[in-house]
Design a protein that fits this description.
Length: 438
C-alpha cells in the first residue's frame, strides 16, 4: 500500500515521505511473495472453496468502544437475573450485523442467557418487530471465559446509517461489570428481575451511562473503517449526553453529508477518558490500558480498518512530575514513532493531532505547559505522521493561545463542548482521508 501525497493547509498539516527506488522495492517484494503465495493457494484450493462463505463477507465496524477495567470492587456494578439494554448508534448501514461482546478484563466466566438486537424507538423501547436474537455458534446462550471476547453469529437485519440499536443481554446469574467502558454519554437501562431481552419494553430498575461487556457492532458490505483512538477528548467528555456529539460522531455525519456515495466509511470511537499513550494507571484501571498496549486489540483488530486518527498524550503530561516530566517530550516522541511503525507494518496510514490548550485546567502548571508546547512543536515540524491535524490551533483562544477559546470550553478549560467537538471534526481533511482509504 502506498500513501498519497498531501496538500499542506491550515489547520491541517501533512506530508508525504518517499525515497528513490521505493516503488521498485515494493514491486520486488510483491514478485518474491507471488510464488510461495501461489503455491499456498494451490495447496489450499479444496478448503478455500469451503471458506468462501465467510471470506467474502467483507465485515466492517459500524460502532465500537474500548473496554477497560476492572473497577475497584467497592464500585463494581453487578447484574443478577436481570436484562441490560444498551443503546449504540451506527455510523454506516448494512444488510447483516454481528456483535462483539467481551469479558477481557474479567476474572470469572461470564454467562449470558440470551441476547437480542433491535432498533431503538425511544428510551429503552424497541421498535415492534425489529428485535432479532443473537446466537453464538448457533446457541442462544454463551459463557465467555475470563480474558476473552465473543463474536455473535451474523444476523440478517437491515440497518441504516445513524440508526440507534438496542442491544439486550440477559444475565441469569451474577455478572459483575468488570469489563466496561465507563463513559458512554448515553443512557442505558437495567430491568427488574427477569429475561426481557426479546421484549419491546420492560420495567426499569435503574439506568446508567456505561457500556459493560459490549465493544463492537459490525455490518457487511466491505466498507472501509476509520478508527479514532485517544483519551477523554475522543471519548466525548464535555459533550451533551444522548445526542452523539463526540467529534467522531460529527465526523461520521460530515463524511456522509459531504462525500455522498463515496462516504460509506465506518467511524469507530476507541477513546477512553483518562487514557495515556505510555503508561497505565494502576489506581484507575477504568482509564484503560495505555494506547501502546491496547493498539493491536482496539485498532488493528477492527474489521475494515484502513486508517486511524490518534489524539493522545495530554494525560501523560498532566499526570507526570519531576524526572518523568523532564523526559516526557522524548518519551512521547518515542511512543508516537512506535504507533506509526506498527500501523505502517499493517499498511494503515496515521493521522496525528496536536495536544489541546489547557491553561486554567486543574492540573495546569507552567512546567507541564512547556512540555505540551515542545511536543506540539515536534509534531508540527517532524513530519512523521502521514498527516497532522492541528487541533491546538483549532481550539485555542487567539487572544490567549494557551487557553481553549471560551466558545469551545465545556467549563473545565480542557475538554471542548459540543461546538468545540464539531470544530475538531470540521478540521479533518475529508479529501485526503478518503484518498487514504482507497
Amino acid at each position: 500500500m502506498t500513501f498519497p501525497a498531501f496538500r499542506a493547509s491550515h489547520p491541517f498539516l501533512s506530508h508525504s515521505q518517499t525515497s528513490k527506488g521505493a516503488g521498485t522495492d515494493r514491486g520486488r517484494r510483491r514478485f518474491l511473495l507471488g510464488a510461495p503465495a501461489l503455491a499456498g493457494a494451490l495447496a489450499l484450493a479444496p478448503r478455500a472453496t469451503l471458506a468462501q462463505s465467510w471470506r467474502g463477507d467483507g465485515w466492517s465496524a459500524t460502532w465500537g468502544c474500548a473496554p477497560a477495567g476492572p473497577p475497584p470492587a467497592a464500585s463494581t456494578t453487578s447484574f443478577s437475573g436481570q436484562t441490560v439494554r444498551m443503546i449504540v448508534r451506527t455510523s454506516i448501514g448494512g444488510n447483516r450485523i454481528r456483535v462483539r461482546l467481551t469479558n477481557e478484563m474479567g476474572s470469572a466466566p461470564l454467562t449470558i442467557g440470551s441476547a437480542q438486537v433491535g432498533l431503538r424507538s425511544s428510551g429503552q423501547a424497541v421498535v415492534a418487530g425489529s428485535n432479532h436474537p443473537l446466537t453464538f455458534g448457533g446457541r442462544s446462550a454463551i459463557t465467555i471465559q475470563p480474558g476473552s471476547p465473543a463474536l455473535s453469529d451474523p444476523v440478517y437485519f437491515q440497518v441504516a446509517p445513524f440508526s440507534d440499536l438496542a442491544i439486550s443481554l440477559y444475565f441469569p446469574g451474577n455478572a459483575p461489570g468488570t469489563t466496561i467502558h465507563r463513559d458512554s454519554w448515553q443512557t442505558n437501562y437495567v430491568s427488574t428481575a427477569g429475561n426481557f431481552a426479546a421484549n419491546t419494553t420492560f420495567t426499569i430498575s435503574r439506568s446508567f451511562a456505561s457500556w459493560p461487556f459490549l465493544s463492537e457492532v459490525d455490518v457487511d458490505g466491505g466498507a472501509p473503517c476509520v478508527v479514532a483512538i485517544g483519551d477523554s477528548i475522543t471519548d466525548g467528555q464535555g459533550s451533551t449526553g444522548n445526542q452523539n456529539r463526540r467529534w467522531p460522531d460529527y465526523l461520521a455525519r460530515r463524511i456522509q453529508a459531504e462525500l455522498g456515495t463515496a462516504g460509506r466509511m465506518g467511524v469507530v470511537n476507541r477513546g477512553i477518558a483518562g487514557n495515556r499513550l505510555l503508561l497505565d494507571d494502576p489506581n484507575a484501571l477504568l482509564a484503560g490500558r495505555d494506547v501502546l498496549e491496547r493498539f493491536d486489540r482496539d485498532v488493528l483488530a477492527t474489521p475494515g480498518i484502513r486508517a486511524m486518527i490518534v489524539a493522545i498524550g495530554i494525560n501523560d503530561i498532566v499526570y507526570a512530575s519531576g524526572t518523568a516530566l523532564s523526559e516526557m517530550r522524548d518519551d512521547l516522541i518515542a511512543g508516537y514513532r512506535q504507533l506509526i511503525a506498527r500501523a505502517h507494518a499493517r499498511g494503515i496510514p496515521v493521522l496525528g493531532a496536536t495536544l489541546p490548550p489547557m491553561a486554567g485546567f486543574v492540573y495546569y502548571t507552567a512546567a507541564r505547559e512547556a512540555v505540551r508546547q515542545s511536543t506540539n512543536s515536534w509534531l508540527r515540524s517532524a513530519n512523521e505522521f502521514d498527516a497532522l491535524i492541528d487541533w491546538d490551533m483549532v481550539l485555542r483562544d487567539p487572544s490567549s493561545p494557551t487557553r481553549i477559546h471560551p466558545d469551545y470550553n465545556s467549563r473545565d478549560w480542557l475538554h471542548p463542548n459540543d461546538a468545540g467537538y464539531q470544530a475538531l471534526a470540521a478540521a479533518v481533511p475529508l479529501g485526503e482521508l478518503s484518498a487514504m482509504l482507497v
